[in-house]
Design a protein that fits this description.
The protein is 33% helix and 18% strand. It has ten helices and twelve strands.
């Protein structure tokens, strides 16, 4: 059986090439996995002050990445570095429009290149922080470039001059950063969208940056590399540990902490339905037909992201169907 990594890469390549799949391979490729449109050309980052010294940088071109930064007496902590030097410089420009204090820290919420390829464009004295699992995956630099090509319309020039810059600081469970009169917490709650999803939290503002763990308002979880069971446990720990008022997701639209309950219900329903499908002896195709994306989760049909969200759900069905094979 193919690994998750192989399945996701193959699915994206097939779609990018417009390949038609033989019926004999239906179980492997029935779920087309469209790459999210992340080409940053034309994207601007809107600065939104969420609390004194706490700023979201929201992309004008969703789902191109969001970012953000926190200002303390000693300096600044930035969340995510974006896709390339151009976007990393836009982040730094936004910081400079607010403060001239040094950028002391840069947190990578995940290992994916749209969050990390801009690392090299930050000052050398800026310390980069990531979960240890993300730091390890970031070493697969050339593989990540190939994997992300479909997300930028197969335009390698988007990150053609990017240089690998790995984290200076890694952590296992949690980390606290004192910026001077401003405490920032960095948490790992478990496997979710990927193996090292970090949540950056400002306690006194009740603001959290979630990277790919929570994609934003009106979305469902995205099981790129994880299982629904582990994701449920991760969201439960997140909800229990932090009191969140505002979530700045890695992509799409800011939301509030209530989305964690919505994510948990979606995943629990998905696991239950796949178990029932397995017990009923349904094939993957039959399970997909029997488990459409519910109206409570679907975006309006005229939304440019409606088809993408539907494809994410179908991928989640496939991943959870495989996960429940031996349960």
């Amino acid at each position: 059986m193919k690994s998750v990594q192989t399945l996701r890469v193959t699915g994206w390549i097939l779609l990018a090439l417009g390949t038609l799949v033989s019926p004999s391979f239906a179980d492997d490729f029935v779920v087309e996995f469209p790459p999210p449109p992340l080409h940053p050309a034309g994207a601007e980052l809107e600065t939104r002050e969420l609390a004194p010294g706490v700023y979201a940088l929201v992309s004008s071109k969703p789902p191109v990445d969001n970012s953000g930064f926190v200002v303390g007496r000693r300096g600044v902590l930035v969340i995510d570095a974006h896709y390339n030097k151009t976007m990393a410089e836009k982040i730094q420009k936004a910081v400079r429009q607010v403060t001239d204090k040094p950028i002391l820290y840069l947190v990578n919420t995940t290992y994916h290149g749209d969050h990390t390829f801009g690392n090299y464009a930050f000052p050398s004295e800026t310390l980069i922080i990531a979960h240890k699992n993300s730091a390890e995956k970031m070493k697969e630099f050339e593989e990540e470039k190939k994997f992300l090509l479909p997300t930028v319309n197969n335009d390698p020039d988007v990150y053609g001059d990017v240089e690998l810059r790995l984290p200076d600081i890694t952590y296992t469970d949690s980390l606290q950063i004192d910026l001077g009169d401003r405490l920032v917490e960095i948490h790992y709650f478990g496997h979710g969208n990927g193996p090292g999803d970090s949540v950056v939290y400002v306690p006194d503002a009740q603001v959290a940056w979630t990277g790919n763990l929570v994609l934003g308002a009106g979305t469902v979880p995205f099981l790129i590399e994880g299982g629904a069971g582990a994701y449920i446990e991760t969201i439960a720990r997140f909800s229990k540990t932090l009191d969140v008022k505002t979530i700045v997701p890695g992509h799409l639209f800011p939301t509030d902490g209530k989305i964690l309950g919505r994510y948990s219900r979606y995943l629990s329903d998905l696991v239950q339905s796949m178990r029932e499908s397995r017990r009923a002896g349904l094939s993957l195709q039959e399970a997909l037909a029997a488990n459409p994306l519910g109206k409570e989760h679907a975006l309006p049909s005229d939304s440019p992201l409606a088809a993408f969200l539907l494809a994410v759900h179908r991928w989640n069905v496939k991943m959870t169907y495989e996960e429940t094979k031996t349960s």
